[in-house]
Amino acid sequence: MSVEQRALLIGLVSISDRASGGVYEDRGIPALQEWFGAALSSPWKMHTRLIADEQALIEQTLIELVDEVGCDLVLTTGGTGPSRRDVTPEATLAVATKEMPGFGEQMRQISLQFVPTAILSRQVAVIRETADHAALIMNLPGQPKSIKETLEGLKDQDGQQKVPGIFAAVPYCIDLIGGPYIDTVDAVCKAFRPKSAIRPTGK
Question: Distance between CA 126 and CA 98 in Å, rounded?
């Protein structure tokens, strides 16, 4: 099976001392599973991890998902604020070979539509490359409502896109780093590609 035809491998990492310790139920991973179930029309598989806010553990988990499991896309939730325990961006940058600052900038633009404290968010996105593989790693918010808004953007009462979500750019990014071709459900999140990069059948 060619790269273009295989299923997209997604890694989901929820980073929370309390959720990983069983103090409360994690909501980030279920929210992402539900969103991808509605948003993707091409095949995909998911690997999930629930871990504590420890930088070395986060780095180890990201490296495992990309280098060993072979994920094309890894999303983290939690640990991106200014508190001492929030080290997700530091761990993400530590395993990166390229930074993708536009994703973090757009996430904060979306959140600023709702709360002025969006500027306290430190989410980043990066590419991690090995000799024969590459993956996009993105930090997302921890709250299900914010995760959905960040991924699909904001629409007006008529359903017209007001602020683009970050996932619209993800399929083309995955194309460019050698991953499988991703088709999305337009009503949830319409993927944007240059005309020259669009494949009629997704093959």
Answer: 6
